[in-house]
Amino acid sequence: MFEIVERSEMAQGTIISNWLRAPKIAKKALPGQFVILRANEKGERIPLTVADTDPERGLINIIYMVVGKSTALFKTLQVGQGYMDVIGPLGQPTHLEKVGKVVCVGGGTGIAVMHPIARGLRQVGNHVITIIGARSKDLLILEDKMRAVSDELLICTDDGTYGHKGFVTDMLKKVLTENKDVGLAVCIGPVPMMKFCCLMTKEFNVKTLVSLNPIMVDGTGMCGCCRVRVGGEMKFACVDGPEFDGHAVDFDELTLRLRSYLAQEKLSYDQFKAAHGHNCACHT
Ligand code: FAD
Ligand code: FES
Ligand code: MG
């Protein structure tokens, strides 16, 4: 068992952070990589990014949003309990190079995915401008951690309850207009956010990386479930990615593929909620 040693809730209980005992993964994981977890022997295989590591204590950090049956089941796991299996690190690590000035844009749990990448880009000598956003103040995560790894941190909320009122794309436009020397953008968050950030950076001719989240099963390039079209070619996000050139990604196809099993996912979540009672702490 991969034991949970620390657990906390963020964004009004919709986002959960777990530090797990996984010493081998903690030693090897690099920014941009992910793990696949199962809570128990009947559990689905769920890919989650390695949001941070503590190799000395042999711990890895995962941060996930509760969106359906398996993440709701994960939410029920408390300190001292754990996951039956955790495999990884999987995927290609981020290519960290010094380009000068970099803009990192994170939305929702994409902020957790962004954290080790922004830190890595800064460690190799880049000036990192980070833009993070959420629907409202209560849903914004990791502000302090992102501030610690950024030269400049800009915050946006859709409803204006904190930071600048508006979308991260509006702020991205402002930053790119004022900083003609940005050499790289990294945009990670919900698919529509990444799509619109990429349209924006294309206008400014700034190379852009995105981290894709197609449905995955084995995570090792064998099932083909995670196919994404990039520059007209079929790629497997689990082994070729999850990061790709955002200007070449077919986001519309990705959106359609992510919706393939909506009816089954809804049924399974409804059954889970019914079985666990409507007032339990494990779902929102
Ligand atoms: P469901 O109701 O089953 O699904 C909700 C939606 O999640 C689906 O409509 C579908 O779009 C997507 N989904 C369902 N099953 C899978 C699957 N097996 N693989 C991928 N997507 C699926 N989420 C986070 O909150 N934090 C992270 O750090 C994070 N990192 C990820 C890294 C990678 C490489 C990938 C591919 C996905 C990542 N995700 C992350 C998304 C996370 O895996 C899904 O939210 C989760 O699988 C949903 O499972 P569920 O049973 O709770 O919800
Ligand atoms: Fe099976 Fe990528 S998840 S090939
Ligand atoms: Mg599921």
Please give the structural blueprint.
Layout: E1 2-10, E2 15-21, H1 23-28, E3 34-38, E4 46-49, E5 52-54, E6 59-65, H2 69-76, E7 82-83, E8 85-90, E9 101-107, H3 110-123, E10 127-134, H4 143-148, E11 152-157, E12 164-165, H5 168-178, E13 182-188, H6 191-203, E14 208-211, E15 227-230, E16 233-236, H7 237-240, E17 243-245, H8 251-258, H9 262-276
Parallel strand pairs: 9-10, 9-13, 10-11, 11-12, 13-14
Antiparallel strand pairs: 1-2, 1-7, 2-6, 3-4, 3-8, 5-6, 14-17, 15-16
Helix pairs in contact: 2-9, 5-6
Residues 44, 68-70, 265 line the site of magnesium ion.
Mean pLDDT: 94
**Which spans have pLDDT < 50 for at least 5 consecutive residues?**
279-284
What is the CATH topology of the largest domain? Rossmann fold
Rounded Rg? 18 Å
Tell the overall outline: globular
Helix/strand/pairing category: alpha/beta
Give the number of helices. 9
Bound molecules: flavin-adenine dinucleotide, FE2/S2 (inorganic) cluster, magnesium ion
- The named CATH superfamily of the largest domain: Nucleotide-binding domain of ferredoxin-NADP reductase (FNR) module
SSE run: EEHEEEEHEEEHEHEEHEHEEEHEHH
In CATH, the architecture of the largest domain is 3-Layer(aba) Sandwich
Tell me what the structure shows.
- A 7-stranded mixed β-sheet has the order 12-11-10-9-13-14-17, with helices on both faces.
- It is built from 9 helices and 17 strands.
- α2 (69-76) packs parallel to α9 (262-276) and α5 packs parallel to α6 (191-203).
- Helices cover 30% and strands 31% of the residues.
- It has helices at residues 23-28, 69-76, 110-123, 143-148, 168-178, 191-203, 237-240, 251-258, 262-276; strands at 2-10, 15-21, 34-38, 46-49, 52-54, 59-65, 82-83, 85-90, 101-107, 127-134, 152-157, 164-165, 182-188, 208-211, 227-230, 233-236, 243-245.
- It is α/β, with parallel strands linked by helices and 284 residues long.
- It folds into 2 domains: 2-90, Elongation Factor Tu (Ef-tu), domain 3 (Beta Barrel); 94-206, Nucleotide-binding domain of ferredoxin-NADP reductase (FNR) module (Rossmann fold, 3-Layer(aba) Sandwich).
- Bound molecules: flavin-adenine dinucleotide, FE2/S2 (inorganic) cluster (FES) and magnesium ion (MG).
- Magnesium ion binds next to α2.
